[in-house]
Amino acid sequence: MPDESDQAETVAFLSHGAAYGDAAAPVDRITTHISHIFLVGDRAYKLKRAVRRPYLDFSTVALRRAACERELALNRRMAPQLYEAVAAVTRTSNGGLRLGGTGATVDWLVQMRRFNQDCLFDRMARRGGLSPGLLRALGDTLAAFHAAAEQVPGAGGAAAMERIIRSNDSSFAASPADAFAPSSVARLQLALEAALRDVAPALDARRAQGKVRRCHGDLHLANICLIAGRPVLFDCIEFSDELATTDILYDLAFLLMDLCHRGLTAGANTVFNRYLDRVDESDGLGALPFFMALRAAIRAHVIVSGVSDASRFAEAPTYLDLGLSLLASAPPCLIAIGGLSGVGKSTMSYRLAPQLGRMPGARVVRSDVIRKCLFGLAPEARLGADGYTPEVTARVYARLAQEATTVLAAGQSVILDAVFARPDERAAVQAVAERAEIPFTGLWLEAPQAILEERIGGRAGDASDADISVLRRQLGFDLGQLDWPRLDASGSIDRAAFNARCIISSMGGGSSDPLA
After folding, report:
1. Contact (Cβ atoms closer than 8 angstroms) between residue 66 and residue 107
2. Lowest-pLDDT range, 218-232, 294-308, 373-387?
3. pTM of structure
4. Is 513 part of a structural domain of the chain?
5. C-beta separation of 110 from 83 below 8 A
6. pLDDT tens digits for 411-453?
7. Which domain holds residue 171?
8. Which of 172, 170, 167, 168 is CA-nearest to residue 182?
9. Of 96, 175, 383, 460, which sits 20 to 30 A from 391 (CA to CA)?
10. Residue 514 lies in a domain
11. Do 312 and 341 belong to one domain?
């Protein structure tokens, strides 16, 4: 068995400013289940603890060096501004220790540039600082990282997920005896096994499609920080290529699970929708509950591993409860929200989405975003007149129906956000729900022209290109027979959303409780 007492001298040395050339410098130390992190001045130094777990081995100096070098290389993909070097702790000629130097190496460190700890996303979450705009930026960051991540043919798939479940068996067995109720662990493990059987063919198909890549692997909020106004991912898994080489949606699932566990389901829904706006992964959504629940199981045993803090023991079983709730059945529904430009369709869609169906809520498929995707543009990019021809608009509505069909088949609820001015457009989306045999609600939002013009005039950084001239043309549309419930959207979004939930509930969709 590895002996952490062998590192006691190194830990004591690194805990004092003299190690870094300034005896008066304060040193803050953070201990995790696998590392000691020393914060001093504008630098951070990470020492791998001499531990062996079912999923990693840092038991020797050589293994720790390899892990440090791997950590540096992998994290520079995402955070080159943070990861600087691998540094040695060496023995001096008089028997003391030194950071750097030419003596015999005692241990190895990852040297990083220090950042303000208040900019960690977990701390920002605790003080309510994760705005929708910041979470959309996080979705963009993760989508771009996954698009560039190295594909690993032959890795991943159902067999890899089965190995993780079996590894969890060992990790739960090695956890402190009073950390978990054995019956709760058994229930979740059995539920995960059943869920894996259902999604195994899809996981293997995604592996064949190149969706298994060398990902982050440990993507919870404490491993994301805000630097120069942008989310930065750091501290990815370096100790196991197998654990970090996963389906990209399994990587996303850790972040979504962490947000949901913190009660930030609306935030999880924002990241979820923005990510899917940027990358076409709707075919894998059937596996997302399994992925999220498996992440919850792992988080449960990891947070009690090597930690004596009683508060962590109290928190750990809540992850088991979350895992089971993620795997619980939640029938999907289809909601279509129509109305003229400026009426608040997107605001309503994103307000309703977290409350519909299974976590993290409904997929919002927005015509403005689809239109930009057809031209290979980011959602907020501007399109010229060639993007608004009748032919392009027909393609947009066809894509809305196609996306809704795919997402509903995966078991996720869907909100379609578009003008839906023509009767055939409204009939087409209702037919999607009828074919899927799921509840459908169409809502038509209305507000006076003056309010619509005011809202359009106040837009900034939105996917819609509609201006007041577009609205005035829309006011002349012949809507035909409009049999969707009409909803006054001229007042507060809270009142309008409450009324929308009442209508959706009465038509068999979403939560049965309009106050939920």
Report:
1. no
2. 294-308
3. 0.92
4. no
5. yes
6. 999 999 999 999 999 999 999 999 999 999 999 999 999 999 9
7. 121-327
8. 172
9. 460
10. no
11. no
